[in-house]
């Protein structure tokens, strides 16, 4: 059983130096106890304390870094069974499968097509992370050539899939710059695969037919000094996969089973006969604990819904996505352009700014910090009140950029207009539409 925050605090240096990223040793101790920090973040802890705190400082599910460059990511590191308990930290990575008998021209075509499947939402770039290259020919040179092409000519990270250790070595030598995930160590090749992963400092997937078999293999590999492991419990029937996902997560979080305290990889491509059904299963796997999901292909109509689901699940429910408070210029506004104001909830900002841009009316958009709350919620909580909004307008500096004194407020906050006019003498407070989709017509009518 892990140590409590107070027990950990007694073993820390109590310098309150802040170099760990939090202001006090007590706060750091609480983060260690909850799995949100690692002991290496404290530069002054003694070796004796390190030994005693090793178990308490390690997250129940080890975070594993995979890849390099713009699509590098971490998987694992989770501390709760359910998102509403706290949050999920590291989003499920999505991969597409390529077999080693593919021609280089076809590979290049797929990489270009897949790389284009990305889009912006609430200020984030949503896109898949990985290509899984599977050996089906036993040709080490051919496998290495394809691995090198993916590593050097694309942004994607790599999963190298080979049961033959010589083929795997060739792939690793050709693509180690991308820090690929090696798949997979089994009961038959664990010694050789483990030695290769340890020598190259690469993460290693572990596959067995049962959870008990996984535990035996992970215990063996951690005994060899390997820490960055990814689990594949072997099942491919959807019901059994679901049961395994939940059982592994529960064992790691509730029972403190270190042998299962690693992220899981799941192969939707081996669980269904078509991409649409893979997508349905992928939606379940993202929601139920898969660290990586591998599909047979990426297509926009299948991929984008999964990316959006992933975004929603891995957004901290206690910390809404926000944009920075300030003045935003949309469409090169001048001193006569309209001024609008709204809250700093990301979705609100991107919807409103998108509608203003669509109107083709250059405008100033004031974004007020309401701690990430939407207009209605911020108004109800008193964070978007007339006096608060008026105070922000005064301090924002917008008056120095315009030759008029007119400001448009959201229709849902119409009741604050009177208080704003009292606090902003000489200003005209205009009540805008409630629905953002009406903003283009509203602005066009306003500037006629």
Please report the distance between the alpha carbons of the first and last residues.
Answer: 70 Å
Regions with little confidence, pLDDT below 50 for 5+ residues? none
Number of strands: 17
Under CATH, the homologous superfamily of the largest domain reads Dihydropteroate synthase-like
Count of separate DSSP helical elements: 16
From the alpha carbons, calculate the radius of gyration and give it in angstroms: 26 Å
Oligomer: single chain
Per CATH, which architecture of the largest domain?
Alpha-Beta Barrel
Molecular structure report:
By secondary structure, the chain is α/β, with parallel strands linked by helices. The protein has three domains: 53 residues, Electron transport complex subunit B, putative Fe-S cluster (3-methyladenine DNA Glycosylase II, Chain A, domain 3); 250 residues, TIM Barrel (Alpha-Beta Barrel); 121 residues, Rossmann fold (3-Layer(aba) Sandwich). 40% of the residues lie in helices and 17% in strands. The protein contains 16 helices and 17 strands. The protein has an eight-stranded parallel β-sheet, covered by helices on one side. It has a three-stranded mixed β-sheet with strand order 13-15-14, with helices on both faces. A two-stranded antiparallel sheet has the order 1-2. Helix 15 links the parallel strand 16 and strand 17. The longest helix has 16 residues. 40% of the residues are buried. The model has no long low-confidence stretch (mean pLDDT 93).
Structural key phrases:
448 residues, alpha/beta, 3-methyladenine DNA Glycosylase II, Chain A, domain 3, TIM Barrel, Rossmann fold, 8-stranded parallel beta sheet, 3-stranded mixed beta sheet, 16 helices, 17% strand
């Amino acid at each position: 059983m892990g140590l409590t925050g107070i027990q950990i605090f007694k073993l820390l240096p109590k310098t309150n130096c802040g170099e760990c990223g939090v202001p006090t040793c007590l706060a750091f101790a609480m983060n260690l106890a909850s799995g949100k920090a690692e002991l290496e973040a404290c530069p002054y802890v003694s070796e004796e304390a390190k030994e005693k705190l090793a178990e308490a400082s390690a997250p129940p599910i080890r975070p594993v870094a995979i890849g390099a460059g713009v699509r590098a990511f971490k998987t694992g590191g989770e501390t709760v069974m359910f998102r509403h308990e706290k949050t999920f930290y590291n989003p499920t990575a999505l991969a597409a499968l390529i077999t080693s008998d593919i021609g280089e021209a076809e590979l290049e075509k797929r990489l270009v097509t897949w790389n284009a499947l990305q889009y912006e939402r609430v200020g984030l770039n949503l896109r898949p992370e990985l290509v899984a290259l599977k050996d089906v020919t036993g040709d080490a040179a051919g496998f290495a050539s394809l691995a090198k092409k993916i590593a050097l000519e694309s942004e994607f990270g790599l999963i190298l899939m080979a049961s033959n250790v010589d083929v795997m070595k060739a792939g690793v030598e050709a693509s180690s710059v991308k820090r690929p995930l090696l798949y997979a160590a089994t009961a038959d090749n664990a010694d050789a695969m483990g030695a290769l992963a340890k020598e190259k400092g690469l993460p290693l997937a572990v596959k067995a037919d049962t959870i008990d078999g996984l535990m035996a293999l992970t215990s063996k590999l951690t005994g060899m000094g390997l820490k960055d492991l990814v689990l594949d419990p072997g099942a491919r029937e959807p019901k059994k996969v679901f049961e395994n996902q939940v059982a592994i997560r529960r064992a790691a979080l509730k029972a403190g089973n270190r042998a299962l305290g690693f992220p899981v990889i799941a192969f939707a491509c081996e669980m269904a006969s078509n991409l649409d059904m893979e997508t349905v299963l992928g939606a379940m796997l993202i929601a139920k604990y898969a660290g990586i999901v591998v599909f047979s292909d990426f297509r926009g109509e299948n991929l984008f819904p999964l990316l959006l689901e992933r975004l929603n699940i891995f957004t901290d429910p206690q910390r809404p996505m926000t944009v920075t408070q300030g003045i935003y210029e949309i469409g090169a506004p001048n001193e006569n352009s309209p001024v609008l104001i709204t809250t700093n909830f990301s979705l609100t900002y991107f919807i409103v700014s998108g509608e203003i841009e669509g109107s083709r009316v250059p405008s100033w958009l004031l974004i007020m910090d309401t701690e990430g709350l939407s207009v209605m919620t911020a108004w109800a909580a008193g964070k978007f009140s007339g006096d608060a909004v008026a105070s922000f307008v005064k301090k924002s500096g917008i008056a120095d950029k315009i030759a008029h004194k007119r400001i448009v407020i959201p229709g849902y906050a119409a009741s604050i207009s009177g208080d704003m006019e009292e606090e902003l003498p000489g200003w005209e407070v205009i009540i805008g539409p409630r629905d953002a989709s009406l903003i283009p017509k509203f602005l066009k009518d306003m500037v006629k």
